[in-house]
Amino acid sequence: MRIGRKAFYLGLSAATLAAITGCGTSSGNGNASGSQGGTNGSGAIVINFWSSGPAGKGFQSVISNFNKKYKGKYDVVFKAIPYANETELVNSALSAHKQPDILEESLTPSAPYAYEGIEEPIEPLLKSVGINPSKDFPASMWNGTTVNGVHYVAPLDALPTLLYYNKALFKQAGLNPNDPPTTEAQFVSDAEKLTNQSKKQWGFVEQPEFNTWTFPSLLSQFGGQEANASTRKIEFNSPAGLNALNFLYNTIFKWHVSPEGASPNEYSTLFVKGQNAMSMSGSFNVEAFKSALGNNLGIALLPKVGSQNADFLGQNYWWVFKSPSLNAQKKQGIALFMKYMYDNSMTLATEDGLFPTWEPAMKNPQFKNEYSMNVQEEAVKYGVLNPLIPNWGTTSTQNLYQTMDESLLGKLAPQAALSQAASSMQQEVNQLVK
Amino acid sequence: MSIKKLPVVIVLVIGSIIMIFPILSLLGASFKTHTLVFTGGIIPQHPTLKNYATIFSSNIPLLRWILNSISVSIIASLIVVVIDSLAAYSLAKLKFAGRNVIFYVIVSSLMIPPIATLIPMYLEFSSANLLNTYWVLVLPYSANAFGIFLLYQFYLGIPDELVDAAKVDGSSKFRTWISIFVPLSTASLATLGLLTFMNVYNDFFWPLVSTNSNGMRTVTVGVALTAIGQYTTNYAELMALTFCSIIPMLLAFIFAQRKLTQGISTTGFNL
């Protein structure tokens, strides 16, 4: 039987359209926010949980185990969302009242929602399942995370800033590979010995575009802070801030232990190639550096460049959005789920490499044996966080860090860079939080 | 080849190398390890299939995402071609009150940045309960002001005498469109269809916002969510995933290249 060309194309189009129409409904979880506020087919209360942070195998297996344990009662529907587009995604959902019940993100994005009054106070929820936040969470991650005196967020994992060093390069330079620098003087002395420009080897790579971890750490070590969250006054242009920036600046232009104008990711690329002996960066690099350097990887606390130990913590917090469906039963489910996740912190640590914020887990002997966890635990004790000011991440990147880069590229003096950044950022913060 | 053409050929070869460099770089990086992805040149010193093995041995539903992208792109392209062609025909050749006003309103909508319409569109689909369905991935692209403008320009060039002759022969307006305008504009329609296909296939933001479940993801969203982490990105795996995801687009372009260039030349449209 012959089919005409027109009939064939018409039939093909119709078949494709029919296929699409037939699949017109989602294969997943109903609408874009899951079964909003309702129950699933088996009558379980649906808890929508979005995360722009961890979504590893361990993380998902804990969620799955919770769903098995509470089958027919609660059903946690997990959705991973990209960190870079989190705001647009959540705000769209909020506009249609399809926000998730729980959102996990880094700390400062929670601030605007708290100020708008659309987050649920979290302390009563935690206490309802026996969590004592001031005892069960590290003080550095619980204290100072309030908005108008109320806790809306709870920490789930931490990513401290660490000193990574290459033990093989230390040995080659005649340094003790088990004695990483702990002071500014030692750091500079070691870095100078480790720098060999003829071999294109650097003691340290200070990289513009990558100071969101080092600068707050050093600033705090010199006794300063980025801003006062309650008065919203920008404070990084203090003598402490200048000392912190001067340290980074001097590694390039005074001590010459770091290359000029390092390109994006160069600190990491050179480190894994054995051309960068020391790196100060977040614990997210542990796995990549370990797989590249193996036993030659050393991990230590940041050296005490200033007058005290301090360590900026990357972090993930979670919070609960108020919604019409948030009744007592659902709140109970959310609280149980949070407790379940904390109780399974060891799974998150061992399978996903997440540093838990659950103090009871840190007492676990198994935890102490996990690679680098003891150093991270020490770092968390000295942890500092970004100030809880709305839109801090974007404004600090666009003002502070971009201006700081000008300085680290040798185009602007450190003092001028900080003053300029503070002025523009203060204006922006004032506008944003009117 | 004459000697006169040599400079042109040299320029084109240099241009081609520049254009193909990112794709070759992507391909090379996909055969490197995560830690060494930014080292060395395009050709990996120690090539590995690990990234591809990880993709195909894990439960990443890459094929499903690619099929989703292809399906919605084809359907959106077909709808755009029909709707835009009808709209352009009526605006270019039919006489009715407010024709110019409608045309300018449509064209001026091109100046509205897509991000400005994100929340209204999300609310619209939410109220229709169409979020996380294939409809939400197809309908927003189904009437395209750019396509109307493109075809309008082409249809203006078709002599009115042809329309008059069809009318004398008793042809209805719809019949005139289907018998005269569609056959005359196949190259332009193919261009519009292919451009729409590429636009829908490559779109990231709307599918990200409007879909929820893993099975409903398009390939751009799925790839980004798989390989781009909060603080780190597995660039080697991202490159391997991206290379797999662009294969359908490469094939579409290779097979439709002739129609596309023909369409561009007949509409005077520059990419």
UniProtKB/TrEMBL annotation, chain A:
According to the UniProt entry, its GO molecular function terms are: maltose binding
Top-rank lineage group of the source organism: Bacteria
Could you list this entry's UniProt keywords, alphabetically sorted. Answer: Signal, Transport
Gene Ontology BP annotations: maltodextrin transmembrane transport; maltose transport
**Which protein, by its recorded name, is this?**
ABC transporter substrate-binding protein
Signal is among the record's keywords = yes
Q: One cellular component GO annotation, for this chain's record?
A: ATP-binding cassette (ABC) transporter complex, substrate-binding subunit-containing
UniProt cross-references to PANTHER family, sorted A to Z: MALTOSE-BINDING PERIPLASMIC PROTEIN, MALTOSE_MALTODEXTRIN-BINDING PERIPLASMIC PROTEIN
In its UniProt entry, the species of origin is given as Alicyclobacillus ferrooxydans
What family does the Swiss-Prot or TrEMBL record give for this protein? Belongs to the bacterial solute-binding protein 1 family.
Q: Extract the signal peptide range.
A: 1-18
Give the matching Pfam families.
SBP_bac_1
